[in-house]
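Schema walkthrough. Field components (list of strings):
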Amino acid sequence: MTQYIIKRLLLLPLLLFIFSIFAFFVIQAPPGDFVTSYIAELAASGSSMDQAQIDALRAMYGLDRPMYIQYLKWVGRIIRGDLGVSLDWQRPNLELISERLMLTVALGLLTFCFTWAVAIPIGIYSATHQYSFFDYFFTVFNYFGVATPTFMTALVLMWLAFQYFGVSVTGLFSPQYVDAPWTWGRVVDLLRHLWLPAVILGLDGTARLARIMRANLLDELNKPYVEMARAKGMSEWKLVLKYPVRLAINPLISTIGWYLPLIFSGSVIVATVLNLPTIGPMLLRALTNQDMFLAGAIVLIYCGLAVIGTLISDILLAWLDPRIRMEES
Amino acid sequence: MSSEQRPILSVRDLKTYFFLDEGTVKAVDGVSFDVYPGQVVGIVGESGCGKSVTVRSVLRIVEKPGRIVAGEIFFRPRKGNGRLLEGSQDGYVDLARLDAQGREMRAIRGAEIALIPQEPMAAFSPVHTIGDQIMETILLHQAVNEEEARRLGIERLREVGIPNPEQRMEAYSWELSGGLRQRAMIAMALSCHPTLLIADEPTTAIDVTTQAQVLNLLRSLQQQHNMSIIFITHDLGVIAQIAEYVLVMYLGRLMETGPVVDIFHHPLHPYTRALLKSIPSVYTRSRTFLPTIEGSIPHPFNRPPGCPFHPRCSQFTAGICDQKTPLLQPVNEQQSVSCFLYHRRAEED
Amino acid sequence: MVLGPDAATRISPAHEAPLKIDDQASEIMIAPSEGAEAFYVAPNWKLVWWRFKKHRLALVSSVILMFIAIVALAPGFFSTQDPNATNAKELFIPIQTLHFFDEGRLRPFVYAVVGQRNPKTLRMEWQIDQSKKIPLRFFARGYEYKILGLITTRIHLLGPASPEEGERIHLLGTDRLGRDQWSRLMHGSQVSLSIGLLAVFLSIILGILLGGISGYFGGTVDLIIQRLIEILQSLPPIPIWMALTAALPRDWSVERVYFAITVILSLIGWTTLAREVRGRFLALREEDFVVAARLSGCSQGRIIFRHMLPTFASHIIAASTLAIPVMIINETFLSFLGLGLRPPAISWGVLLQEAQNLQSIVLAPWLLLPGLAVIITVLALNLLGDGLRDAADPYH
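Field assembly_structure (string):
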């Protein structure tokens, strides 16, 4: 078990290396560089710089050096915790991101919990009541859940809430809490705003997960060990929960590996529509404004979050399934 | 009549049908038999003949869309299981009338009637330890605490000849060899000292040498506890080794019943004869073709009218066998046969 | 209870059963019904078709998809206006509901709209004028367009009966630039569908190539490709796509951006298909009929193309069908965020970009309608894909 976790942990630096190259590529990709964008920014506000100033700026950021030196310098700065300065916001990137990172993670985790809390019972019900009214109902619901782009759900709910209740469901805090320090009241206020985005973001995943759970459980329900448990005289719901459900959930654990990245991925869009202060809309703004150091840093963070998710799912799976535990050690 | 002469299980005209979209499959279609205390009854037949569904009906674990549509399953529970016997005068409960998932039926399953399945590998949950699954049965039916249940579980494992039972309690089924796994399964089935054991092809999935060991083990446990066993197999050799009384089944109906000696030495039904002929023997000349039964089992939706065996029967009489269905009738002291070669009694419809 | 075929037909389910087996079958089986007998000897594709026919929803979906495909092939024919023509005098016109019957006869018409400027907001406010009908006709003459870039014509499925008099209709209203939403929706289907198809096509090529290599060679190559797939799958796709599309030069032509986005989408999309291919390859390699073919001396090529591919192809088709809606949704996401296709290209995502904030939706809720097109198409493709997937394995 420990050996297995260590093996997984050893893979981390390699992954981070690959991701950092990718993030660096993102930074380098647009034509021109940081300074060109800066000049454009200045030009937009009506001022300009002479060539000497431009060269000085380039030298300061090492933009006149070969690519790999630039990369190493960038990585070096990141390791020291310096993510650069945002042109657009005129503030250090680290500060900008860390403010919003917590909310991003909170939204992701809440969505994840919502998905599992809803999808597993639906999956169990549908499988044990196959072809019943609610099984069909959930099947239809699932198809629509998968087919509806998250931003559509967000837009429609937003519109309905405004049209019929006159409330605005955007943002994560009530006005009095937006810039307030963290207090208990602020946390409660956050949760009151956070659940709706979490539900919207989780609908697609809930639908998928419920379908997988239903299919897995249907497979397991036909296994001889279920009949054996029945032949022992166990009561039906007790045996279903103890054996087939337990076995049907195991493969679901491995879906965490791709589901968490998808939540973070989808939150970009939902957060943009609902105007949530997470790193998603910030990435969009950074990309459209060519604020590339900020964009690169955010992409790197997204990758990091995803990798942590995969790691957690791997460890959980090994912990829950003795077969995998044995195989790996 | 002393209780020893009265059957522990008496199945009367049992019919279990499967209602599928494509039609109704009459998996068990009017089966009657008795099992006496301490008796080993073997059910033989080709795959798909309804042997498994018969015993699953007795245990009331037939899966949807299967359902018992007619018949009685009289079972005589132990004296201690008194609650079951309310309203019954002769000490029998009709299992077919009980709620399949109700408390009464569950008190019988596992405690009084136990099952040994075909594939022990698949019948143990791969993510629960063997000990956990054996203790579960004990805790379900006996008023003991967990510690006591563990002790009893270890005792059972030792009884079936598993070395290091304390350690095996913590093992997973896939960590054991095929033979040990089946032994563990037997230990689980016997954990509450059932009076009737149902063994559904328990030796099919294991190799021949282990097979013999498992059969011997079952035989000795049966004598030790004076259990009754219903033993299902398609292997006539195994039947000869273990059974005292034999039921020959074909397409959901009994073709012939009788003591094992009579069935083997004096088979009456053409189907039984054909089955016996197709056993390889060391006495026949080598390199000759084994006789086989002509044709194959009909499609379950297309049961032939009349005697189910008539299309493959070598002594088929046109106008009779394909018109009427023969009833199972005693034709001598020991045997009963459902064949018009021996009697004229047909099912009335 | 399982109606499995006997071992003889299982050995090569991909083959059409030769007559000889057929003859034997009727001898061996005493009383099988016609259906059962046909089942035992049917070739693979027939079994797939029989199973597929049972999925009513999948059948309905394929009919719907055929309609959508026809629209996507000739969007101009179904349009009523030039999709990119702006009209400052016709901003945010609401939906003009299409009426087919006038006084009990098939005479399609819409009611006219009249605009009045609100003196406070200075905005045009449109009212449906029930007193004035605009008569329509089928195969009406309208603006000039090309079908598949080949045939130039002015004939449209539906249009105002007398366009010379300046009568215009907006079946789904107009947007902030006065562009006709219905015509834009028709044209958007072309891009949205084709981008999905093309991206899946590229994914299949990548997936079959890498998945096949992985499954065929095994060992280190397999390990490396599997790790690559794992890494790509553990990444959050949307931020990556956003970053990549944002990197596309601004001065690229519409066609280049279109193609680049397709490539970007398939760069991550191939992993699912590659896994599928590899899994099937590994599973099939161990199947009895493949082993039997190998033992009877079939060449490697014959085993792959004659024995493995036919059983395999249906799975790939099913998996690809299920991959198309994912691509369509992803393109919609990117364009919605303003990072995908750029005007004047029209896709459903580009249309939905107009409905990005609360103000526009409150002002013009009909701007959300392209979302319905996305939902219907994705739903139909998913149902079709599920039907195909279930049918793909007729032996289970």
